[in-house]
Amino acid sequence: MPNWTELQNAAITDKNRSLVVSAGAGSGKTSVLTERILQKLLSGSDIDEFLVVTFTNAAAADLKTKLYKNINEALLKQPDSRHLYNQLFKIDSAFVSTIHAFCFDLIRQNFQSLNLSPKLRITDQAESDMLLTRCINDLFDTKYSSKDSGFLMLVKQLTDQKGDKKLIDAAINIYKKVRSYPYPQKWFQNCIEQLKYELEKTKNDFFATSFGDKLKEYTVERIASAFALLDDIEIYKSSLTDKQADVINAVYNSLVGIKSVSAYGYTELRNAISDYNVPSFRKSKTPTNEEIIVSELKSQITDIIKTLRDEYFCDSMKDIYADIAVAVRITEALSKLISELDESYFEIKRERGVLDFSDLEHLSLQLLTDENGNRSILCEKVSEQFAEIYIDEYQDTNPLQDMIFSLIAKDNNKFIVGDVKQSLYRFRNAEPEIFNDYIDDTPDFNMPGKKARVFLSDNFRCDKPIIDFTNAVFSTLYNKTYGSYSENEKLIYGKHITAEVLPVTVTTIAGDSDTEAEYFAKEIVNIKKTMLKENSEPIKYSDIAILLRTPKNNADTFIKALQKYNIPTYSEQNGSFLDAPEILLAVSLLKVVDNPRNDIALTALLRSPVFAFNETELAKIRLSAFDATMFDSVVNCARRYKAQPKSKRYRCYHMIRNVRTNKKIKKSLPTISRELGKKADDFLKTLKTWQTKNEGYPSHKFIWYIYRTTGLYSLASAELNGEAVKKNLLLLYEHSRVFEQTSFRGLSSFISYLDEIYDKDKPLPEAPALSENNNCVRIMSIHKSKGLEFEVCFLANTDKKILQADKSPYVIRRDTGVLFKKRFIRNLYIRNSLLTKIMLLSENKDNMAESLRALYVAFTRARRKLYVTGIEKDKDENKRDSYLDCIRYTLKKRDLSDIVEEMVYASTDESDFTERAVVNTSVFNNENELEKRLNFKYPYPAATVAKLAVSELEQDETENSFRISAKHTSALSQPIFISQKTSSTDIGTAMHTFIQFANFENAETAGTSNEAEILLKKEMLTSEQVEMLNHTKLTAFFESDLYYEIKSANKVWREKRFSIMEDSLLFGQSSGEKIMVQGVIDMFFETDDRITIVDFKTDRITENAIPDFIKRHTAQLKYYCLAIEKMTLKKVTRAILYSFELGRAVLVDI
Predict the structure, then answer these.
(1) Strand pairing of 504-509 and 862-871?
(2) Which of 365, 387, 764, 1035 yields a CA-CA distance of 20 to 30 A from 126?
């Protein structure tokens, strides 16, 4: 039996109370839920007394599997228990399902009460979308014909030169949104009544309305932020001149004036904000740091006031009143439109004997309530059927689902599990506030009553640095605006493993997305070589995941980078299925069969390997009847070849006859050879055969016939990625087979279905060359990763803005209603009305909160190692526009150096340069020429970043700076296939690699030879490197005073890579340019807040040569010190060169 924590055990054993379980990431909530059910079964309960609801079929199946396993294990201890055997057989029929499966079962049992057919079927998304689109198009035609004034008002609001597509899309999306509410029409009526009430209140003052109250609250918050900035300025005020101080005083007085009228009406506050006008803050000719900081802070205050003035207080009371009046009329028109759409859409579904998922919930609500909205007799019966109701992932419920659960549950038999911090489905109408309200309204576990709440915060998945990092970030970012991160919500480290603990790596990418992807590839190669799981097994590719917010935009970049390093990858976003060349060809063929006069599809088919017309032939065909369609041109070409009267089926249009009788035009027409004419005729015969076949076949059988007769499927084998091409063709067949099971039939309908998917930008995924079950790196969205875990996670693209620009023409919120953006026809522009802006304040807060929840999910997918990367863009540490900004803000506020390593990475891929250098090394033998090139100043410094390795630096003895040197640079060495002799460099690499990866404790006790064999087995050393090791010199190190000092250190870093941007002035160049310095520090360690750096050297030296030895490496060590101090924010007090040749440490003065 597992060792349950106190709170887990409480959630398992508590009786006769409803429990609200807030389960943090990795807290074992599924195990707790299944264990609770098992304990009920062991106490004599039957499994069919429980209703267990999950939100996906996969989760339901997984839950059943775990219950089956738990009961089997219990049977091993109680082999004679007939009761447990019965439960085992009942699992398949137990009420463990999704909410939609439960609702569908309820509807089928009561179909007569709903006047439905007993032969009901659930539509898939494609079928329901096609039916809904058909209904709304028919409805719009009726509305246009009747000249409905309310509808025409909506048309005026949301149509443009391209037609009414925006209005159609908006109506469909609003319809789907309100269908997640228990009573959509009742909701619309409440919104209308509320708007009318607001209209009356506005006659007195806008701040008397609920909209105005929200604006007032927002304004007070922004003014408070401005005062906070003034407090920051106060620190530097003593350094300012009198005139500068006067400007700051003027800012203060103006803000006080605005604050003083904020308690009054809208107009008074509007006037006060409009009157804000303070002098500019003028810096001196050579401004001090204090002046620069104050100037920036003052600018931020000005921006706050300017935003309030231009965005929120630009409308007069008359404008606001008019906007609310328009909002009333639009909401009334929209309510009517949505109601009529719902009626026609449900009727067409009833006729076809189908229901969509939303119908399942609404019809169940109808069955469970009477005409007054109270519990029906059937509801009482269903409620009595279940002793307990278990609902997982409650944070993802919508209001309608919550009402259904509340109706069938009793006061003391509901067990709901969720985590608000992992709610990611607002776009599917989930409302995490529902679960949050349950938590807030439920007393703690130790309090008496019919309900209690339990917080499961122990995380058994992630290593401690990941836990601490997650807690630090969300304790800093979360507040009452974005959500709670109280002590109850904080994760608690629960694994207590003895394996090596790895820090969280936060890497800023000095480059673009290709550089970021290259960094991932190199890190994965390194991980495969060096990292082990907790059980000491090597990491597999399938233990690694790359998480992206929007994989469809850039997954391909990461796939290409990983493939370059021969790393197998899997991504569901490999590409759009409909954009794959083989699918474009197959669909073109189907379109030609359905409609030969589709010029684009026909030309693509003729040019393809199926008919193999070349460009010249197609041009001749097209010019033979250039005023007709491409198909008519083909017909004309074939007729000229056959020289016979027009066929009935393929007669040319009048224009073609005119062309043939016009002698001038006829002379200029290209000559059609018999071969080309026959080719066109053969195509037409084939097309006729296809069209005949299509008339008697469903679409999927016709597609399979095409595959067989054209050799299209066989042609796939000739492609470089033939297997993937075959899989895509089979996927097209499968889509058509599933489509034929809907209420639509035939090739035309299937083509329309594909076109609709393409037009709505809802791409079907390609068939991947690898599956997720293969040993490959997964590239996936954060949403898809929810519920999964990996040994190593890379969170990419954290520099992207969290909140994207609002492109929707409307805003809809359950607590407020629906508002459209304000259209100004005369001025030909659209903007948000004040009401819409106020609604967007709440909407943006909710979107920001969900984005932060996605970050929480991403952090907590990793078991052992977490990488966070983003491209360097803006170093403003006060900004929080991106995930990277949020993380930097946290790192600024908190000292996390013990659990987080910060790095900068720039591409180091110089393979092209190396190849050129090997071809001709003579150019680089000239030291003067090399030094000249190294010190060349690029005339456009802003366009590039220089890179420099630390080993290329030497210290200028006359100045406190470094300079780039070529004095110790030799020509490129010969490739290994030219000279097989072991070099001193190879020996040095072997010794350094041993020091990097060796288990020092084992090397000390069991010997360096034993440790070398272990590293060989782990593939951290090659057999050649093992032969190169000098064990006498290595043993001397493990017997040295330096080693024992390292052994007793608080913390030791080995092979620490770094990339840091520095001003070129540091290297003796002119200021203003940036040079990126890269290097690898062999070792540094910390003892009593002192840091010592150690650089291992295998140089062949004598005691007499020590001064030159020190001089040669001093510059390198000094820069290492600078890098360490930047990374750790601690002073380096000692620098040591450890010479393997001398067998001792050499102290370097820094």
Answers:
(1) parallel
(2) 365
SS3 717: helix
Element (H, E) at 389: strand 388-391
Half-sphere exposure of 111 (CA within 13 A, CB side): 14
Checking if the pLDDT of 937 tops 60, the result is no
* Mean pLDDT, range 62-74, rounded to an integer: 93
DSSP code at position 999: -
Determine whether 614 is exposed, middle or buried from the number of CB atoms within 10 Å of its CB (0-12, 13-18, 19+): exposed
Among left, alpha and beta (phi > 0; psi -120 to 50; other), residue 416 is beta
Q: Which residues contact 694 (CB under 8 A, 6 or more apart)?
A: 593, 594, 702, 747
Per residue in 332-378, pLDDT tens? 999 999 999 999 999 999 999 999 999 999 999 999 999 898 999 99
Torsions phi, psi for 1098 (to 5 deg): -110, 15
Only one residue has tokens 């608080």, namely: 1050
Tokens describing residue 1057: 């890579």
Here the tokens at position 962 are 């470094």
> What is the dihedral sign for C-alpha 143, 147, 148, 154?
positive
Spell out the SS3 assignment of 104-170. Answer: HHHHHHCHHHHCCCCCCEECCHHHHHHHHHHHHHHHHHHHHHHCCHHHHHHHHHHCECCECHHHHHH
pLDDT higher than threshold 50 for residue 761: yes
CA 784, 786, 789, 791 dihedral sign is positive
Residue 760 pLDDT greater than 90, yes or no: no
Tell which residue, 49, 38, 48, has the closest CA to residue 78. 38
- Count CB neighbours of 689 within 10 A: 11
Q: Please give the pLDDT value at position 953.
A: 47
DSSP 952: G
Per-residue confidence at 977, pLDDT binned at 50, 70, 90?
very low
Average pLDDT along the chain: 85
**Do the Cβ atoms of 261 and 269 come closer than 8 Å?**
yes
Structure confidence by residue, pLDDT tens digits, 141-162: 999 999 989 999 999 888 877 7
Token pair for 143: 């509305």
Using DSSP, state whether 1051 is helix, strand or coil. strand
Q: Is pLDDT larger for residue 554 or for residue 838?
A: 838
Residue 650 has pLDDT above 50, yes or no: no
